[in-house]
Write a structure and sequence with these properties.
The protein is 19% helix and 37% strand. The protein is built from 2 helices and 8 strands, in the order βαββββαβββ. A hairpin with a 7-residue loop joins β2 and β3. The longest helix is centred in the first third of the chain and has 12 residues. The chain is globular and about 45 Å long. The termini are far apart.
Length: 118
Amino acid sequence: MCSDSKSLSHIRLNLVVLRSGHPRELAIWYGQLLKQTVNEEKHDKGPLHFAIQLDDSVIEFYPQKSEKPNTPMTFGLSADVDTFEYLQTTTECKNLNKNSLIISDPENNQIIVHKMAV
């Protein structure tokens, strides 16, 4: 394991990959939730998959590799005040506190949304 006492605050998450038995439908759900365009992609001999671009980050939706269901995951997003309030009022969500909420997608993945400080 690498260890260094220097801060790594310049590191940012830029990719989340969700595997699904229904990647197109899951991508469309996220596209509607986040008001983003869903792009169809295929790289070389890889599988057809879907992607949503969020600034410098990407959420990709790939077909799952086996028949066994995937274990749900949790990831976080930061949202400006307007987007946070939109998500809070238009989705089924659980408020963690006045600045954070949790949204579950159709496959039980959880999105923790934090309101950005102004």
